[in-house]
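Handover notes (outgoing to incoming on-call)

Open items:
1. Uma2 family endonuclease: sequence verified, structure written out, both below. Nothing else pending on this one.
2. Nothing else urgent.
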Amino acid sequence: MVDSYLNRLPTSWELPCCDDTPVDNEDQNFLPNFLLFLLESIWAKRLDWFFGADMAIYHTTGVNPRVPVVPDGFLSLGVERRKKSGSRSSYVVWEENGIVPTFVLEVVSQTYGGEYDKKMEIYAKLNVLYYVVYNPNFWKRDQHQPLEVYKLVDNFYQLQIGEPFWMQEVGLGIGKGINSNGGLQREVLYWYNQQSSRYQTAEELLTQYRQQFGELPGS
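Uma2 family endonuclease structure tokens:
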């Protein structure tokens, strides 16, 4: 019966890759990709994870499996780093052995997108373990904190305390930090280790090396 139902579901090739909703601030694109590129360095040798940025997630816990939810970023564990057929155009849960994302990130923009109610309900039904809302500009308007980490407990999200917050099941912490690049500084989200030390980008490590030892050998 279950196999028959799955056989009737559309494939990733038949489904749109996104919902075509334009972002209305730079952070919604930059921050998830910053986390992705950092993770590619941290987990360079691991092939059992996938991080999607502004990618549609198709699932069967909503009204219609053809209607996706599109978070700003998400992390799935225990899946192929790259599909054998190539890059994913979208994340289709029934093509990922039923594995749903463990971590989802939403960045709040000027146009409120239901991050604290509608989307929270969707992710809870989808069984996403960690739901993170980053709201650096409009947190006072929304009467929330700039960064909130929620954990799914008994089918409901509970706000977690502490920053950076260590996500045991993910093996990473999440928290704010200042990134300097090209003479510009901006607040971003970083991955942290269990000792609450943030993972550095390749550029930061290179700068640190040059400050300690001078130019790289052979440069």
